[in-house]
Design goal:
mainly alpha; Arc Repressor Mutant, subunit A; 2 domains
């Protein structure tokens, strides 16, 4: 899907989990962290319409509903586009600028692609994060004396956040590995 918003992928991910109406989707967006994408009918319904126009979802009237309600189902093209988005490699730029996007992809990964692909994603995330932390530390070390105190402390906070994300990724890989051992 070219030029698609993150909202479109979030909608595809939820519809991939189970067919839903626009109202059902709005309820999820308004009651979870996904609200950061938008719970506005002025955003969600046009995004659903664009997905339907592209043939990625298909809306069908819900015969059992008392009001005019359309339930959206993912099409084969929608599944292919969604899975292609999930399979994109994790880049350094993603780690620096789009962590929220990465976490959205990861949230849908198990059901759509399975644990093996989730581990690959986490490994890429950990590798890119681990490679970036020394760059930040080197910058801090070489510029700390000329930085205002607030700037130095803000950079230290950023470094600690990346270190926390790296620990999370490695711990998550360990959880997947443990689950795999338990299944054997």
């Amino acid at each position: 899907m070219e030029n698609d918003s993150l909202l479109g992928f979030a909608l595809l991910g939820l519809i991939h989990q189970q067919p839903m109406s626009g109202y059902d989707l709005r309820k999820i967006f308004s009651s979870t962290a996904m609200g950061s994408f938008s719970d506005s009918p002025g955003a969600i319904y046009p995004a659903l319409r664009r997905l339907e126009e592209r043939g990625l979802v298909r809306g069908k009237a819900d015969e059992a509903a008392s009001r005019n309600r359309r339930v959206f189902h993912m099409t084969t093209d929608g599944q292919e586009a969604f899975k292609a988005w999930l399979k994109q490699p994790v880049t350094r730029d993603d780690v620096i600028r789009r962590t929220g996007d990465l976490m959205l992809r990861f949230a849908f990964m198990d059901q759509a692609l399975g644990a093996k692909r989730a581990i690959r994603f986490l490994s890429q995330f950990a590798e890119e994060t681990a490679d970036y932390i020394p760059i930040l530390k080197l910058y801090l070390e070489s510029h700390a004396s000329e930085m205002p105190l607030s700037g130095r402390l803000a950079l230290e906070c950023g470094i600690q956040e990346y270190e926390t994300r790296l620990r999370w990724a490695n711990a998550s890989i360990a959880v997947y590995e443990q689950k795999r051992k338990e299944k054997k």
